[in-house]
């Protein structure tokens, strides 16, 4: 087993660079921290490239055959995003695989979602609702950002997630007869008027500006959630939860 | 108009203490920051005790008759919770008024909700769903915490919110024939089996342990949201959104 105790080790510097989107994209890797996320990553064969354990931490279940490096608490602190890391982390491989678009029945499409917590929570909710995939259009925050990973609580490893221009994905779904619903505050129907669907794609949009008009023009129909009180809007992740569970039935 | 430019002014020290729960409770006051929250506070007559404006900021609409103090950017920075405050803040009066419990039809009851973002988002969602009140049981994070206020986006000023032991509130609702639903992962019915209700109360619980068993034993029935994928749970605020809009119909 490899051991790294110095924060000056070149490997530590490389891991640390995974805190930036640029280097994550270059390397095709991202880092997850903590027992729960590492366990979820290990359940998906071939996803973990290297397991990093602070001395004294037990080897997690499912790590047979995975490269293991023992690191010092100082090294963990240097590479982790959290203030008090749990002592276990994993270097994971990005795996953006769009083939399910040709066969799946339920999808969440995201247009320029900016808040990491919202994105992570929507990935988690899409997983809970049994969707077949999450498609990230232009302008979304990086899904491999540590805050997104924490909010999603392991759902990155449960369903396919990939980047694709949304008009392209929508055209592919339309060819297969999967209805695409936008979400909007104007020129839209109350969601309760739409029945549960055997298959569907739902588009959720940017926190400030919503789904772009260019996309809303290409949907089967656009839904809104009535506001019965005095609030001006719902949080986008809450709206996604309400609509996904309604459409799923 | 009063002017305060020094962060050493005793009044500034008093405002600064509103960052702590203890002093908020002692004084019965809390501070909101930023244009949107201040405007929402001003819409509710008698709620703002003092408006604080950095020099050069326009006086917000609805502030006629409200005590106004001009402060320096340094004073604003000292009393604000955000890194880059917007230049307007308001000292507001807590107003916990439970009389709607005797007449309202729809309530959200919260048992030991700990995360400020979750609490704020649930208050915002309760407002959107047109509920008549939000009742905070034991162990909830302080609703006047700045993070809760930000997440709720002004809904604190849109619907009554108060602290009350939940068994007491549940007994009062039961006497009026308002059905109380718990949310739970075990010994519960899928929420889709329950019809929309003309009146209801929904209990949401702690992020880790859920609604306490003692409360679940006293409900009309307990609901769960089926998990169709591999995620182990939903975020509590997402679950609240799905259940509130379902029960409302």
UniProtKB/TrEMBL annotation, chains A, B:
SUPFAM superfamilies: alpha/beta knot (SSF75217), L30e-like (SSF55315). Residues 31-98 form the RNA 2-O ribose methyltransferase substrate binding domain. The keyword Transferase applies. One of its GO terms (biological process) is methylation. The keyword Transferase applies. It holds the Pfam family MRM3-like_sub_bind. Coiled coil: none annotated. Keywords: Methyltransferase, Transferase. CDD domains: SpoU-like_rRNA-MTase. GO terms for molecular function: methyltransferase activity. PANTHER family: RRNA METHYLTRANSFERASE 3, RRNA METHYLTRANSFERASE 3, MITOCHONDRIAL. Belongs to the class IV-like SAM-binding methyltransferase superfamily. RNA methyltransferase TrmH family. This is RNA methyltransferase.
């Amino acid at each position: 087993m490899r051991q790294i105790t110095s924060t000056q080790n070149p490997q530590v510097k490389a891991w640390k660079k995974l805190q930036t989107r640029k280097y994550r994209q270059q390397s095709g890797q991202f880092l997850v921290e903590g027992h729960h996320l590492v366990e979820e990553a290990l359940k998906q064969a071939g996803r973990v490239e290297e397991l990093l354990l602070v001395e004294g931490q037990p080897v997690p279940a499912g790590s047979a055959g995975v490269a293991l490096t023992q690191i010092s608490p100082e090294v963990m602190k240097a590479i982790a995003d959290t203030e008090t890391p749990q002592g276990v982390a994993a270097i994971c491989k990005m795996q953006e695989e769009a083939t399910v678009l040709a066969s799946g029945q339920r999808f969440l499409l995201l247009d320029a979602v900016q808040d990491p917590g919202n994105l992570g929570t929507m990935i988690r909710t899409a997983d809970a609702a049994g969707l077949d995939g999450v498609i990230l259009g232009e302008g979304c925050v990086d899904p491999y950002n540590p805050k997104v990973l924490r909010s999603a609580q392991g759902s990155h490893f449960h369903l396919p997630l990939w980047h694709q221009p949304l008009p392209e994905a929508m055209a592919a779904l339309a060819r297969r007869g999967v209805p695409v619903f936008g979400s909007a505050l104007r020129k839209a129907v109350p969601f309760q008027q739409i029945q549960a669907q055997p298959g569907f794609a739902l588009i959720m949009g940017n926190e400030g500006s919503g789904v772009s008009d260019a996309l809303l023009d290409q949907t089967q129909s656009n839904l809104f959630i009535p506001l019965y009180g005095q609030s001006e809007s719902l949080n986008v992740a809450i709206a996604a939860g309400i609509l996904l569970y309604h459409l799923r039935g």
